[in-house]
From TrEMBL:
One of its GO terms (cellular component) is large ribosomal subunit. Binds directly to 23S rRNA. The L1 stalk is quite mobile in the ribosome, and is involved in E site tRNA release. It comes from Proteiniclasticum ruminis. Belongs to the universal ribosomal protein uL1 family. Part of the 50S ribosomal subunit. This is Large ribosomal subunit protein uL1. Keywords: Repressor, Ribonucleoprotein, Ribosomal protein, RNA-binding, rRNA-binding, Translation regulation, tRNA-binding.
Length: 229
């Protein structure tokens, strides 16, 4: 552990479940790196992701964005390609980008959007896009004919959330420089979306544990019963 991490860890009482406001203040205070650290949210859910009816996945536009400039690749043709370019997509194309990704191992983008008629092409990239979490999906709004809305939402700070195989959702809620109030707005937006996304098949306690941390900082535990306060 680095010196900054050790010093930061002293500020946190591991036996305490903090309120969101207290936790965010600590996360910002313990972000001591020289760059603008991302504040990350980690939520352990009471679901079994091995079952299809207990998957938790979706997307939400954060009120204050993520603080990150996002590059968008759109698979579309004709009028929809022109619409995507006008909406501010960084890259727009079809088979040409399929070849670029497959043959050149090109990944200079953060999000992929595709019109439904292009999913036959994009599907051929499943093996490379899937493991990187880049495969377009209707649930997250990235498979759509409304490419303008998809691009505008992404550029405005839309984040995807998805439960992993350990039943945990990891999602960024902004940068240290946002300050506690903006981070709290983003935190609340994510938590409300997660609560709303609770599968009907999930039994018992849904929010098992909630914590936040800066990129290089220690985790701060939050009381799960206080997350939407």
């Amino acid at each position: 552990m680095g010196k900054n991490y050790v010093e930061s860890a002293k500020l946190i009482d591991k036996s305490v479940l903090y309120t969101p406001q207290e936790a965010l203040e600590l996360a910002v205070k313990t972000a001591k790196a020289k760059f603008d650290e991302t504040i990350e949210l980690h939520v352990k859910l009471g679901v079994d992701p091995r079952h299809a009816d207990q998957q938790v996945r979706g997307a939400v536009v954060l009120p204050h964005g993520t603080g990150k400039t996002v590059k968008v690749l759109v698979f579309a043709k004709g009028a929809k390609a022109s619409e995507a370019e006008a909406a501010g997509a960084d890259y727009v194309g079809a088979e040409d980008y399929l070849d670029k990704i497959q043959k050149e191992n090109w990944f200079d983008f953060d999000v992929v959007v595709a019109t439904p008629d292009m999913m036959g092409v994009v599907g051929r990239l499943g093996r490379v896009l899937g493991p990187k979490g880049l495969m377009p999906n209707p649930k997250s709004g990235t498979v759509t004919f409304d490419v303008t809305k998809a691009i505008e939402d992404i550029k405005a700070g839309k984040v995807e959330y998805r439960v992993d195989k350990t039943s945990i959702v990891h999602v960024p809620i902004g940068k240290k420089s946002f300050g506690e109030e903006k981070l709290k707005d983003n935190f609340r937006a994510i938590m409300e979306a997660l609560v709303k996304a609770k599968p009907a098949a999930a039994k018992g306690q849904y929010l098992k544990s909630v914590s936040i941390s800066a990129t290089m900082g220690p985790g701060v535990k939050i009381n799960p019963t206080k997350v939407t306060d």
